[in-house]
Amino acid sequence: MIYPIVIYGSPMLRNVSEPITADYPGLPQLIKDMFDTMHASDGVGLAAPQIGKSIRLFVIDARPWADEDPRLADFTKAFINPEIYERFGDEELFNEGCLSVPGIHEDVSRPTKVKIRYLDENFVEHDEEYDGYAARVIQHEYDHLEGKMFVDRLSPLRRTLLKSKLAAMSKGRYKADYKTKLVK
Ligand SMILES: [Zn+2]
Q1: Among 48, 128, 130, 135, which is least packed by CB within 10 angstroms?
Q2: Does 141 participate in catalysis according to the annotation?
Q3: Mean pLDDT per segment of 10 residues, for the chain of length 184 residues?
Q4: CB contact at 8 A, 118 and 162
Q5: Domain ranges of the chain
């Protein structure tokens, strides 16, 4: 099933999401649906709040970036109850977008490396270190679980310049070529 993507301005995107247990109803199907939804909208990452579920789960398929970073050739993963416990390395700018903020791409500064503990779709625990594109998308998706969006991380000037566009988006004036919904 392809879910509609919840759009900026929907209050649920601002919730801090809750951890889940292995008996969360329909979890394998939900994870599959999240991958399908992400692929249908050409995203590389999707967090559960973006389909209206305030739970600590996101999926990433970074394989489209394998040309730039061969380590991503098989990077397709679900992250359950993740905890980024260390961010390090230099701060770097990278042009980010978000399926919940269609039509807006902005340079966002983030540390280049993270250490993260998480459970995979079989509830097996992992403790891993990532850099580059992987660290970037992990931090972006993790933000969604905390109720944060990449536009919160822009400079005050960039935020001011985007203010009217974001206000319009939260009133339903935006274009996206995938299924979306505003939930007030
Ligand atoms: Zn996003």
Answers
A1: 128
A2: yes
A3: 98 98 97 98 97 98 95 97 98 97 97 98 98 97 98 95 97 97 94
A4: no
A5: 5-181
